[in-house]
Design a protein that fits this description.
- Helices cover 32% and strands 28% of the residues.
- It is built from six helices and eight strands.
- It is globular.
- 29% of the residues are buried.
- This is Tudor-interacting repair regulator protein.
- Homodimer. Interacts with TP53BP1 (via the Tudor-like domain); interaction is abolished following DNA damage and TP53BP1 phosphorylation by ATM. Interacts (via the cytoplasmic part) with SDC4. Interacts with TGFB1I1 and PXN.
- Its main location: nucleus.
- Belongs to the Nudix hydrolase family. TIRR subfamily.
């Protein structure tokens, strides 16, 4: 049986704005475009979704923490995006969700999503190379492979086996589901395949019991 798609506690934007000063707010953006292309001429690409490799070797969405004392969510997000992408401004209309993170730090993670054309997405990739933080805090944008190859591991399951920052993996799965970019059963199958791959890799690293 496929593993369920993991979830975090979702709250409304209004509820998030009512949280006290003990909470930190992080805002990130998922930029995506429909992609009619085919890998090897036979595997549908479906969509192209941008994520980025961070300075700490973890994958995440473009964005960062927003100091609510000085910035609205969108102004803070656009300020950070300007440093890492350099050419895009999002608005409240692009708001998608807010989730409470698990762990010792009280953080509410806000996700924004905007659909672009494939040409616009490519322009963002080009602009990102010339942004202030490229090669420093941001080590490059990557496209998420939203397909699974015949071995049931290649593509999306392998991508999910990477290390992600904080809520990024959960936000990716959530957005793909609510935006109808991938059926939930396919998401669950990819999660299960990625989990099994990581389990087998860990077993190889651990010494066998005598």
């Amino acid at each position: 049986m496929s593993a369920a798609v993991p979830e975090l506690k979702q709250i409304s934007r209004v509820e998030a704005m009512r949280l006290g000063p003990g909470w930190s707010h992080s805002c990130h953006a998922m930029l995506y475009a429909a992609n009619p292309g085919q890998l090897f001429g036979r595997i549908p690409m479906r969509f192209s979704v941008l994520m980025q490799m961070r300075f700490d070797g973890l994958l995440g969405f473009p964005g960062g923490f927003v100091d609510r004392r000085f910035w609205s969510l969108e102004d803070g997000l656009n300020r950070v995006l300007g440093l890492g992408l350099g050419c895009l401004r999002l608005t409240e209309a692009d708001y998608l969700s807010s989730h409470l993170t698990e762990g010792p730090h009280r953080v509410v993670a806000h996700l924004y999503a905007r659909q672009l054309t494939l040409e616009q997405l490519h322009a963002v990739e080009i602009s990102a190379v010339h942004s202030r933080d490229h090669g420093l805090e941001v080590l490059g944008l990557v496209r998420v492979p939203l397909y699974t190859q015949k071995d049931r591991v290649g593509g999306f399951p392998n991508f999910l086996s990477n290390a992600f920052i904080s809520t990024a993996k959960y936000q990716l799965l959530f957005a793909l589901k609510v935006l109808n970019m991938m059926p939930e059963e396919k998401l669950a199958e990819a999660v299960a395949a990625a989990t099994e791959k990581q389990k087998k890799a860990l077993e190889k690293l651990l010494p066998t019991s005598s």
